[in-house]
Specification:
Layout: E1 14-16, E2 21-23, E3 38-49, E4 72-79, E5 85-94, E6 98-104, E7 120-121, H1 122-126, E8 127-128, E9 131-141, E10 146-153, E11 157-163, E12 169-175, E13 198-201, E14 204-207, E15 221-223, E16 233-240, E17 242-252
Bound molecules: zinc ion.
The site of zinc ion (ZN) has 7 residues, from loops.
Length: about 260
């Protein structure tokens, strides 16, 4: 589909009023008909921060399937396809919060949506998936460009812990300390965000206890919902992961 010319000025950009000419008020002097576009949603991910191991994405165009054995993921990408894309809503579905620096890597613009070299809290950029964040002014990406992001996890962690066969107690040894922070906002205040979440210990997934007074009890101690079934070890690898999918909702433009 080709771009339509403005039906008021017929693409002339000005209206000739006889004694004077003024900029066309319908197209604001662009000469192009307003294009409402066609509903479209892009997704960056899912990718996993603080995963048990690092792995390349299975779909590089969207970083889908990428895993990072740590809190930092740089150069995460989402490719815009064959039509210009007017981005109107920002969404993020995730296990827990993160910070992000987001930019339009295409057209040589490098246009950033937050201050350059700063990462902002995910809920301040995206709201959350139940309450998506409308952009005050929609942003148009050129076709075939990449949206890129540098991201740092605020939720999970990877490290080494001590565990005993038959015991539910887990003791931190090294690496990322256990996360005692709560999810932002009600109704989670004062409840560690890991409680009820998944922890991988020596390659096996366990649930962290969500019972009152249990779960993450300090930065170095936590309690599982069930007992640890593997071999007793003082050097067991642990990871608590954050799976993230970032949504870009808007409309595809005709040209
Ligand atoms: Zn016009």
């Amino acid at each position: 589909m080709a771009e339509q010319v403005c039906s008021t000025c017929r693409g002339q950009k000005v209206l000739n009023l006889g004694t004077t000419a003024c900029r066309c008020p319908m197209c604001e002097g662009t000469g192009a008909q307003w294009d409402p576009g066609r509903e479209f949603t892009y997704e960056m991910g899912p990718f996993i921060l603080n995963a048990p191991a690092t792995a390349a994405p299975t779909i590089p165009q969207t970083s889908s399937g990428a895993t990072y054995n740590g809190a930092v993921a740089n150069g995460v990408t989402c490719q815009v396809a064959n039509y210009r894309f007017r981005w109107m809503f920002a969404l993020a579905t995730r296990t827990g919060p993160f910070t992000i620096q987001l930019q339009d890597a295409g057209s040589g613009s490098g246009r950033s949506f937050v201050p350059v070299n700063i990462q902002v809290h995910s809920e301040n950029l995206f709201g959350n998936a139940r309450n998506p964040m409308p952009l005050p002014t929609p942003y148009v990406f050129d076709k075939n460009v990449s949206i890129t992001a540098n991201i740092t996890d605020l939720y999970g962690g990877v490290g080494v812990c001590s565990v005993t066969n038959g015991s539910a107690a887990v003791t931190w040894i090294s690496g990322a300390l256990f996360n005692t922070a709560a999810f932002p906002g009600a109704p989670y205040s004062n409840i560690p965000m890991w409680n009820g979440g998944t922890i991988t210990i020596a390659g096996v997934q366990y649930v962290i206890s969500s019972a009152a007074g249990s779960g993450v009890t300090s930065q170095t101690t936590l309690t599982l919902a069930t007992t640890y079934l593997g071999a007793t070890s003082a050097v067991a690898a642990y990871s608590v992961a954050n799976t993230v999918r970032i949504g870009f909702k808007g409309v595809e433009l005709a040209a």
